[in-house]
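Whiteboard transcription, Tuesday session. T.W. wrote the structure tokens on the left side:
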């Protein structure tokens, strides 16, 4: 995009938080030629100017992690609450970095997009704001990265896709679980053919969040609890579907065709609301609401006749699990409750598993994995995700997850709601690639063309500077 067009989009794009109101520009932006963002390499950005929106649960961690990446500069911070912005600034100043430009208030993010020259907008806000903010970020001339999901309705997910294509700006959903160590090991093993042809995979988000969802000091204005009232389906599928969808080459060789979602009733959340309201007036507004069920099981069939199962339960008292199960014609793998790989009736022994780790751990993990653990973020996978994103932008490389991945994985939310509402009837899944899945190639897991983005030393550790020439 040339500078004049970029400036034009930047000025006009902020007239509305969701859609451009000028008819001529509306036609220009959304008259998409179906440009294929899969494999798209945007122009190199030597120093990525980053703005972070949302400094509640996830945002401060993002500020901390990105502050370690020398190829990125956090130039703007924004949150509805000004005190959160002030607190996040200290993450930068304690490392000897410059304070970022501060924005706050309900419309602070709009003002920020209008005023700042940004390369990447990193979105950590409540779910319903992800799509509108990503759309406006791309219209303003920046790439967008958003926490999961990329959108909550099929229409807004389509708008994200079309905006990315029209502006030729990346929109990556920050699916950090794609960067967990076992998930990356098994993805590489799949690519090397060790499991044969995958025929079935399973993923999940099983995480006891009952207390957190009812914590008054948790999510701002109890927004996540409210989503458990509004959305009666699989409302958090991407941690489970993301890694297995990549293993099964969804959107680059196969596509998800249709799904069926079945859900239990709620056996705990309504009771919890009544229990808390008995001694605290604050919770009375949550009494008498219909909450999503404990367990949602969503089954998906692909164009090539393969199956995926994705589960969601954030209420029941049970151990954390994302399942991550892969079943192929030659082998099998699963992450929970214990990491295991099998090529027959029995799991390989621990020493054999270690040999597989040694041989098939991808270059990215070998290169940065140990330092990612030191920086942190879910054991290091968050930092690997952030570093890889910045390294790709700096070197003009395609991203590991395209806008089509974020779209198709996020679409499970509204489509599962629709299926549950129809007594578990089949619901078709849109093809966000518009047929390009037939020729799209899987992303390159190597460091070819990149790997030159340095890391600042961790403040409380000794000499963890990445040795990059």
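and on the right, the sequence the group agreed on:
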């Amino acid at each position: 995009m040339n500078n004049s067009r970029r400036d034009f989009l930047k000025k006009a794009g902020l007239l509305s938080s969701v859609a451009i109101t000028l008819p001529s520009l509306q036609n220009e932006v959304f008259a998409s030629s179906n440009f294929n963002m899969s494999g798209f390499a945007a122009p190199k950005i030597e120093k990525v100017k980053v703005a972070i929106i949302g400094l509640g649960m996830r945002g401060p961690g993002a500020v901390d992690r990105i502050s370690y990446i020398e190829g990125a500069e956090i130039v703007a911070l924004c949150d509805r609450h000004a005190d959160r912005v002030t607190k996040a600034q200290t993450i930068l100043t304690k490392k000897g970095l410059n304070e970022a430009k501060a924005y706050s208030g309900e419309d602070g993010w709009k003002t920020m997009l209008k005023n700042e020259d940004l390369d990447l907008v990193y979105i950590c806000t409540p779910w319903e704001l992800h799509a509108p903010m990503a759309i406006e970020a791309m219209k303003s001339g920046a790439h967008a990265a958003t926490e999961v999901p990329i959108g909550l309705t099929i229409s807004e997910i389509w708008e994200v896709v079309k905006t990315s294509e029209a502006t030729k700006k990346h929109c990556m959903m920050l699916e950090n679980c794609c960067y967990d160590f076992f998930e990356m090991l098994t993805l590489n093993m799949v690519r090397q053919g060790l499991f044969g042809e995958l025929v079935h995979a399973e993923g999940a988000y099983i995480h006891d969040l009952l207390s957190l969802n009812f914590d008054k000091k948790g999510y701002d204005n109890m927004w996540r609890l409210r989503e458990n009232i509004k959305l009666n389906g699989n409302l958090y599928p991407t941690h489970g579907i993301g890694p297995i969808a990549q293993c099964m080459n969804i959107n680059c060789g196969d596509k998800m065709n249709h799904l069926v979602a079945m859900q239990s009733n709620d056996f705990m959340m309504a009771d919890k609301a009544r229990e808390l309201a008995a001694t605290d007036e604050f919770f009375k507004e949550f009494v008498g609401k219909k909450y999503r069920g404990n367990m949602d099981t969503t089954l998906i069939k692909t164009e090539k006749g393969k199956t995926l199962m994705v589960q969601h339960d954030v209420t029941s008292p049970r151990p954390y699990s994302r399942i991550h199960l892969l079943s192929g014609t030659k082998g099998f793998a699963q992450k929970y409750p214990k990491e295991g790989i099998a090529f027959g009736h029995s799991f390989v022994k621990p020493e054999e598993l270690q040999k597989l780790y040694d041989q098939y751990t991808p270059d990215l993990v070998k290169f940065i994995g140990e330092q990612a653990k030191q920086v942190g973020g879910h054991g290091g996978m968050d930092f690997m995700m952030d570093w890889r994103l910045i390294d790709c932008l700096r070197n003009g490389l395609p991203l590991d997850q395209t806008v089509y991945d974020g779209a198709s994985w996020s679409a499970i939310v509204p489509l599962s709601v629709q299926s549950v509402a129809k007594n578990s009837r089949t619901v078709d899944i849109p093809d966000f690639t518009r047929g390009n899945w037939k020729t799209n190639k899987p992303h390159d897991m190597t460091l070819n063309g990149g790997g030159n983005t340095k890391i600042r030393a961790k403040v409380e550790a000794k000499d963890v500077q990445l040795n990059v020439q």
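Someone added at the bottom: The longest helix spans residues 381-395.
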